[in-house]
Design a protein that fits this description.
heterodimer, A: about 200 residues, alpha+beta, two-stranded antiparallel sheet, about 25% strand, elongated, B: about 800 residues, alpha/beta, 8-stranded parallel β-barrel, 25 strands, globular
Chain lengths: ~200, ~800
């Protein structure tokens, strides 16, 4: 997966504020170097699947394959959608190993930059997936909801991460899931978006 | 199939009208959701034929077959296997409706899979998939081929190569760009144009993506470099949402209002994509009646592209540096890596050279015992993803050059094609097929041409052969040949004469492998740099060199200014002011030598921490101690106030996180150096408290906790860090054993945040009296209040809180 590097988002995550922050040239060069190193270590992989919706009521989203998601927030967001897009992405293991090693070896200033780059690149991967799917949908006058939703948000229990993990075959991307439903490597995410149908 | 030359002539220079949307039009005429459009059309011929008929009636000069997804990958999802036959039948349906009234373009869309190097589908497999579809379309009577809605330049290349390998039919390629102005794969319109027109596309452009207003800037950016007609097929705006349903709402008149702007932007073929209807095409046709297209007649620009960047070679531009380091000759570590099939070092060399100022990267993997074609293919695939710099494929083996060019998702430079007759024509054919530029090496037989007249004869001879393959002087860069002055001191002057002739008489670009000139001499960099400066003055445009040589690159920058090739010296000024003064001014950045001499040793330690300069802290502390400052004074009077100032700067957002951490690490390094030297009764840790830190059970996100541990230690707190995903019982046990003043807990997620409360409840049951401090991405002050804990939003606040709780 080749995504555009979200430099502004990486700097913003690191606390950079255009109107306030002053970075000496040498420091800036070093941060840029760390970002470049992060990009070499990040191995973005993604997975996505579109599934038809059977029904949506106030609190429940039912898919045609029998999957049921209980969440009033999610059901509200998906109202009117004929199908949903499930998506997942990971930055891979190498970058996380490097961040751990930086933390252990007193090189946290590099670790925080790598961490921010991995977070934003993973998020960018989901943007890329939604962009890609939207392109296909456009031909049928459909489109995705502008926001996406993840297990652990609001009333959408984190336990649902396991269902999404299985449907997305995240194991084939080298991602595992813990007993407390966390994805390993750490910079791995899953999310849902709705597909609005075309007007008749 | 129509003869390629006749396609444009048939319309006598007027703007050619394409059709509008097929998918949304079929839906409007009853195609149900979720079906395969191609298979549905075969079962509902009257429907697709009516769509074709309506577009022809509306004025389309060319209609597209309904075969957008009729490739092996997509049709297999619906159980269909007879790919060629399906394409033949659908092309036949369109052709029967079209008759003599219009032309039929066999439509090839994306496979929905990603092609190497950006995906897992083998490039040659993708080529075969597209060939299968193209054969069917041609058999069904398609007059031309259109490859459309491509988001991946590599997939567009695979489709174009496939078509070109089986036919010389007129072939259009149109890409789809996002609102960012790039495809989802990161390709900009100009790079797409340069890559595709050099590869043999007969027309290039954009479709889908946006409405007409958003597409005009994309087309306009292509126009100055287009040597082929431009195509535009915008949507009828973007799908809008109303009452839970989506629709396109741009009316035909609104849509057509942009038509003249498209034509003035260079568009020769125009139609509509998603949401457009026969009514849109009808008004479009009407609005363009009698308008003549701007037929491009220009020679393709001298330019190279990667998947994400194009470099143009203007004769008055600064010297182009071709980084020479990706070459195993004399590099044992690189040789070992390549033999093991690894590319880590190659990628590092690529990154370092690009940062050092290389515009292009030479790639050479030739060495004994290696499969050069296989290795260069793998290296080029990796570099295509990891660097934006276009590549120069350097090999003496034609098979290796072809293997590299075939998978490279851009327009590359071949290094090189000489006059060796058995190789020359083969390499010219390869260069032509893949649209590459090439370095013309004026070597013919066994004897090297020592004099300028000998070289000129060879250059003219090789170029004449290249012209036979359609190359122009814009496609070549002549190697003026560099020989060692240690063997023949007149060699350099001969090279300079050759450059002068190329630049001023023949009119082409030149390149030198500069380092050969200094072979056998000491301190080679000076000979190389001086030779380069002289060569630039003769008109040299490219140099194969090491961009990591500061002396060399600085003389190049100076020469570019002196020869007026660095306009207004912008590059020179930017480089040198950027590296000395910086683009941002750090607070109290007293790092200059003058400032060093005028401030005290203690202040220098202070500044060093504020600036986060880890490399200098020990030596500055040593200097301070030589000036009789005690370790205790250095820590308390200079280092602690410095780190507090950093905290203030961070809170005011003047510093961002990497600066805060760098300063904290500098402080830590300095403190670790001084700590053993501080007298027992002066130790900071005796004055501060003890803090136990843990990321709670179920949570593995601990970078924030690690930052807080570092900052607390710097302030003299004793920190016991239990790590991440720590069970409640382990935290309670540790708290009972160590008796900390404060227990700090972190959690990133709402689902693990609740464990903080459980730990605090357990601590009450265990009779612990310590205070709790919590933080993490989702943790709030009100949540902390609700569970009887104190809240710190970040490391700086955690330090202040810890100090107030232990005061």
């Amino acid at each position: 997966m080749a995504v555009t590097v979200p430099k502004a988002a990486i700097y913003s995550r690191l606390g950079y504020r255009k109107s306030h922050t002053q970075i000496p040239a040498e420091h800036l060069r070093q941060v840029e170097q760390y970002i470049d190193q992060a990009l070499e270590l990040i191995e973005l992989k993604g997975s996505a699947v579109v599934m038809p919706v059977e029904s949506i009521d106030e609190t429940t989203l039912r898919l045609e394959n029998g999957i049921v998601f209980e969440s009033a927030h999610l059901a509200g967001m998906m109202k009117g959608c004929g199908s949903i897009l499930l998506m997942g992405a990971t930055a891979g293991k190498r970058i996380m190993d490097e961040i751990q090693s930086d933390a252990a070896e007193d090189n946290l200033s590099r670790g925080v930059v790598l961490d921010a780059a991995a977070s934003e690149m993973t998020d960018e991967a989901l943007d890329w997936i939604t962009g890609y799917v939207n392109q296909g949908l456009r031909r049928n006058a459909k489109r995705l909801t502008e926001k996406r939703y993840s297990a652990g948000y609001g009333d959408f229990a984190l336990e649902n991460q396991k269902i999404m993990y299985d449907l997305l075959k995240m194991n084939e991307l080298g991602v595992s899931i813990t007993g407390s439903y966390l994805l390993i490597p750490e910079k791995s995410v899953t999310a849902l978006a709705g597909v609005f149908s075309s007007s008749p | 199939m129509k003869k390629k030359e006749g396609i444009l002539q048939q319309f006598q220079g007027r703007v050619i009208i394409l059709d509008g949307a097929t998918g949304t039009e079929l839906q409007a005429r009853g195609m149900p959701e979720g079906v395969c459009p191609e298979l549905w059309c075969l079962d509902n011929r009257e429907c697709i034929q009516s769509v074709h008929e309506d577009y022809i009636k509306a004025g389309s000069d060319i209609i597209y077959t309904c075969t957008f997804g009729a490739n092996r990958f997509k049709l297999s999802e619906y159980g269909a296997a007879n790919i060629e036959e399906i394409n033949t039948r659908l092309a036949g349906l369109a052709k029967r409706v079209a008759g003599d009234k219009c032309l039929v373009a066999g439509d090839i869309g994306p496979t929905g899979r990603f092609i190497e190097p950006f995906g897992e589908v083998d490039f040659d497999e993708a080529v075969e998939v597209f060939k299968e579809q193209a054969r069917g379309l041609l058999a069904g009577g398609a007059d031309l081929i259109v490859i459309e809605t491509m988001i991946d330049i590599q997939e567009a290349r695979a489709a174009l190569i496939a078509v070109k390998e089986i036919t010389d039919a007129f072939t259009m390629v149109s890409m789809t760009f996002e609102s960012s102005g790039r495809t989802l794969g990161g390709t900009d319109p100009v790079s797409a144009l340069i890559t595709l027109q050099s590869l043999g596309a007969d027309a290039v452009g954009c479709n889908c993506s946006t409405g007409p207003d958003g597409m005009i800037p994309l087309i306009s950016s292509m126009q100055p470099y287009a040597a082929v007609p431009l195509v535009a097929k915008p949507n009828a705006g973007l799908p809008k949402l109303r009452q839970g349903k989506t629709f396109f709402d741009m009316e035909p008149n609104q849509f057509s209002a942009y038509s003249h702007e498209f034509v003035s932007s260079g568009v020769h073929l125009i139609g509509g994509c998603c949401g457009t209807t026969p009514a849109h095409i009808k008004t479009l046709k009407k609005s363009l009646a009698g308008l003549t297209a701007n037929t491009p007649g220009m020679i393709p620009a001298s330019a190279l592209s990667s998947a994400r960047k194009t470099i143009f070679f203007q004769k008055e531009s600064p010297l182009v540096i071709i980084g020479e380091r990706i070459n195993p000759t004399g590099k044992k570590d690189l040789q070992d890596e390549l033999l093991q099939g690894k590319t880590g070092l190659v990628k590092r060399y690529a990154r370092e050279q690009a940062q050092g100022g290389a515009d292009l990267l030479d790639v050479n993997v030739g060495m004994p015992g290696i499969d050069e074609a296989e290795t260069i293919r793998a290296v080029v695939k990796d570099l295509a993803v990891s660097t934006d710099a276009p590549l120069c494929i350097d090999s003496s083996v034609p098979e290796a050059i072809e293997a590299a060019l075939r998978v490279y998702p851009g327009r590359a430079l071949i290094n090189s094609i000489s006059g060796e007759e058995n190789k020359r024509d083969n390499l010219l054919r390869i260069a032509r097929k893949y649209g590459a530029m090439f370095i013309l090496l004026p070597i013919g037989g066994k004897k090297l041409p020592k004099t300028t007249p000998e070289r000129i004869a060879l250059i003219e001879d090789i170029f004449k052969a290249a012209q036979g393959y359609g190359f122009t002087k814009e496609d070549i860069i002549v190697d003026a040949l560099t020989f060692a002055v240690s063997a023949d001191q007149g060699a350099a002057m001969e090279t300079l004469q050759t450059i002068k002739w190329c630049a001023h008489d023949f009119g082409c670009r030149t390149v030198l492998g500069l380092s050969n000139v200094s072979f056998g001499l000491p301190q080679r960099v000076w000979i190389n740099a001086a030779f380069m400066a002289m060569a630039i003055s003769m008109g040299l445009t490219h140099a194969i060199a090491n961009p990591l040589s500061t002396e060399f690159m600085n003389i190049k920058r100076a020469s570019d200014v002196l020869m007026r090739r660095d306009k207004e010296a912008k590059g020179y000024i930017s480089h040198f002011t950027g590296s000395k003064e910086g683009s941002g001014s750090g607070p109290k950045g007293l790092s200059s030598e003058k400032a060093r001499q005028t401030i005290s040793a203690g202040q220098r330690v202070y500044n060093c921490i504020v600036e986060g300069n880890r490399d200098e802290i020990i030596s500055l502390i040593q200097e301070a101690m030589k000036e009789n400052l005690t370790p205790h004074t250095i820590v308390n009077t200079h280092m602690v106030p410095a780190i507090r100032e950093v905290g203030d700067l961070y809170e005011k957002k003047i510093y961002f996180l990497p600066q805060l951490i760098s300063s904290a690490e500098t402080m830590k390094k300095g403190f670790e150096h001084l700590e053993p030297l501080i007298k027992d009764d002066e130790r900071l840790s005796s004055k501060k408290g003890k803090i136990l830190l843990a990321t709670v059970k179920g949570d593995i996100h601990d970078i924030g906790k690690n930052i807080i541990a570092l900052m607390l230690k710097n302030q003299g707190f004793e920190v016991i860090d239990l790590g991440k995903d720590v069970p409640h019982e382990d935290i309670i046990d540790a708290a009972m054993r160590h008796k900390p003043d404060i227990v700090g807990l972190s959690a990133l997620m709402t689902t693990t945040m609740v464990n903080m409360k459980e730990v605090i409840d357990l601590s009450h049951k265990a009779g612990l009296t310590c205070r709790f401090m919590i933080g993490g991405a989702v943790v709030t002050r009100s949540y902390a209040d609700s569970i009887g804990a104190h809240y710190a939003k970040d490391g700086v606040e955690a330090v202040r809180l810890a100090e107030s709780l232990t005061a």
